[in-house]
């Protein structure tokens, strides 16, 4: 079959791009369609494909300012013409699922999340203190229109696959559609390679991720002001200047972006990974468990599908006080923690399991009658 893979944008390598990479392995001859692409940022399985970009690619500085052009994203994704393709497979957390398929083609939509900043996490991105007044005003003005477009274009997808039960629930709530669930692939081999003995010896707690509003790094920073424990923070992002400005105690360290090769050791030596956001799925909890380390996690979202009460300590309120209380409880909880149980939990979410699941979803789509 002639297959088109559709992804929102190719600028940074994160969980969604790892899904696209796996899909490239499943469909070796597929072309890629995306709003913008910064060459050299993706792994070879993606970079070596024919990659078609939208008119947004020609805007100077677009690769660092693309979020400012959100109102143009629907028009940009609809500008693609996919004549000749028999299967369209979108990987979407923004507008990719809104692409127009050619007559006779089938569209399988893999959803990382509905457009979170226009739905349930709007205040996390555009609430007071999160964005300037002009940005908040603009976001409020375009929100109803983007929600209508997002809901309407769900009908362009023949079959939905969600990355978690959590997201399947959002697809039902926002779009009125059912979705199967295939969890994303996790590159477990390099995280499972190390021994389980003598893990957690670094003495620090680890927070790792993009500095995006909904990930709530601010909760960890505020909690550790009052704690006598080390916090190491890995990553950067749109809130970097806000979160790293001002006096912080010396036991909080910012490491910036860390090479991929160094991540397994960072996980392995940490006492626990802190997971403070409500994530759609979350790759880092599985990477941490694969190295044999537990989590202290906010008890909402996809983490409830990947972490068990034996491999992580949950806190129920998304506040610094609740996190600080969980950290203080951790010494007692850790006595019953078994690293091998954490690794076994992570191994349930392998790349092979993802590929088997997606093959089954494609087959089910192709066998089903055309109803849309």
From TrEMBL:
One of its GO terms (molecular function) is glycosyltransferase activity. Keywords: Glycosyltransferase, Transferase. The keyword Glycosyltransferase applies. Transmembrane segments: none annotated. Pfam families: Glyco_transf_4, Glycos_transf_1. It comes from the Bacteria. Residues 15-190 form the Glycosyltransferase subfamily 4-like N-terminal domain. Its EC number is 2.4.-.-. Residues 204-330 form the Glycosyl transferase family domain. This is Glycosyltransferase. It comes from Stigmatella ashevillensis.
């Amino acid at each position: 079959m002639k297959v088109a893979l559709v992804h929102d944008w190719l600028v940074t390598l994160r969980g969604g791009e790892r899904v696209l990479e796996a899909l490239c392995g499943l469909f070796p001859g597929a072309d890629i369609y995306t709003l913008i692409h910064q060459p050299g940022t993706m792994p070879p399985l993606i970079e070596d494909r024919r990659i078609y970009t939208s008119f947004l690619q020609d805007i100077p500085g677009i690769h660092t300012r693309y979020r400012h052009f959100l109102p143009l994203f629907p028009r940009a994704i609809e500008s693609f013409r996919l004549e000749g393709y028999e299967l369209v497979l979108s990987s979407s957390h923004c507008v990719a699922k809104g692409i127009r398929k050619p007559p006779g083609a089938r569209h399988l939509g893999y959803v990382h999340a509905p457009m979170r900043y226009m739905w349930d996490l709007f205040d996390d991105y555009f609430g007071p203190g999160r964005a300037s007044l002009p940005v908040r005003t603009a976001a409020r003005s375009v929100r109803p229109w983007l929600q209508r477009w997002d809901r309407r274009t769900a009908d362009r997808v023949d079959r939905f696959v969600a990355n978690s039960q959590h997201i399947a629930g959002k697809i039902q709530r926002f779009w009125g559609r059912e979705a199967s669930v295939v969890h994303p692939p996790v590159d477990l081999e390099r995280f499972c390679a190390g021994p389980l003995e003598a893990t957690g010896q670094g003495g620090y707690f680890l927070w790792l991720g993009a500095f995006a509003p909904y990930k709530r790094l601010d909760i960890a920073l505020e909690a550790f002001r009052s704690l006598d424990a080390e916090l190491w923070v890995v990553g950067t992002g749109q809130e970097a200047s806000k979160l790293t400005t001002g006096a912080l105690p010396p036991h909080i360290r910012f490491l910036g972006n860390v090479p991929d090769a160094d991540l397994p050791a960072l996980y392995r030596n940490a006492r626990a990974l802190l997971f403070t956001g409500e994530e759609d799925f979350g790759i880092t909890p599985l990477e941490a468990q694969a190295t044999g380390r537990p989590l202290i996690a906010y008890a909402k979202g996809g983490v409830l599908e990947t972490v068990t009460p034996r491999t992580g300590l949950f806190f129920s309120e998304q506040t610094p006080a609740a996190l600080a209380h969980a950290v203080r409880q951790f010494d007692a909880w850790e006595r019953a923690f078994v690293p091998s149980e954490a690794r076994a939990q992570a191994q349930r979410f392998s790349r092979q399991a993802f590929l088997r699941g997606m093959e089954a979803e494609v087959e089910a789509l192709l066998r089903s009658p055309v109803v849309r």
